[in-house]
Amino acid sequence: MSKAAEIDIVSVSKVYGTTTAVEDISLKIPAGTYCCLLGPSGCGKTSTLRMIAGHESISSGDIRLGNTVVTDLPPAKRGTAMMFQSYALFPHLDLIDNVAFSLKMKGLDKDKRRAKALDMLKLMQMEAYATRRPAQLSGGQQQRVALARALITDPEALLLDEPLSALDPFLKIRMRAELKKLQTSLGITFVHVTHSQEEAMALADLIVVMNDGRIEQAAPPRDVFERPATAFVARFMGDHNVIAGRVTGSRDGMVVFDVNGGGSLAASGKPQQAGAPIDIAIRTDHVRIGEAPAPGLGFTGIVANIEYRGATVKLSATGAGIDDFTVIIDDSDFFSKPVAIGDAVPLAWDAEDAIVLGRLHS
Q1: The pTM is what?
Q2: How far apart are CA 276 and CA 246, in angstroms?
Q3: How many alpha carbons lie under 13 Å from residue 162 in its C-beta half-sphere?
Q4: Domain-embedded: residue 261
Q5: What is the pLDDT of residue 1?
Q6: Angle CA(60)–CA(65)–CA(66) in degrees, nearest 5?
Q7: What is the Cβ-side half-sphere exposure of residue 177, based on CA atoms within 13 angstroms?
Q8: Domain span at residue 237?
């Protein structure tokens, strides 16, 4: 039976002097979820993780784990375990004593704690190295030991601070698969801080995109990718063109707007006040080239760059007041009707592919 806990963050802020690192965020992470806090450096994701762990005090608001308010509890009393980016293993201890360390602090007798540590090393497929020191291990092996040490306390939630950032790309992908497998088999809540969109998409049931101390969107990976909530999310996740403009009116269930310094476009959405600012997102792989667009659903662009990517080709174009518009097309479609840099080409998309974005920081 899993002992996963729901994590409930209620109106939490963190202020350092005059700097607000986290601003009034509220978030529910369901029990047994793999949650990734995603965002650029300085967005507040690590401060949020450290507040859940109890390594950072909360300036205002509350954090609940299951039915317990843990806001003022020390880390050891919270039912969470944290795995640090640096792994923080003790160089002078063998792996068994490294993993058993927290049980030693709790006063568990030597045989019991060593037996449990060996079980954890078995879970991580590291029992063959039990008598080695951390310096004799590779980065991936050290990470497994750090995981074993975090999990030995039977936490309800495991908190991971950029756990894969020190690994080479090949090992990153392997360890990513292992983390997901481990979380599924243990069934406990994982909260994982990362600045890698790819890592979050591969691992998470719930992605929480943070920017400037606030949550821009919290949703399953597919929703974040298919329907970004704000211009920041659309840009940060990539794969979308974000176009800003001002509303001029509406027609046939579409909002019509002028691109700043350029043409007129339309997007599916409720009528909005004329003159109001608007951001829309268009998926880069949902744009067609060489086809005359319907009114407001495309423009003629000048091809500025072409990159061959194997299965796809990436085109960059300018036009209609848009400096850098990206199109990703199938390689066979491109090579059946190739275009060259400097060519003027019609670019078109469907009404449902133009998403009106919300505005968080208005």
Answers
A1: 0.90
A2: 5
A3: 14
A4: yes
A5: 38
A6: 135
A7: 5
A8: 231-356
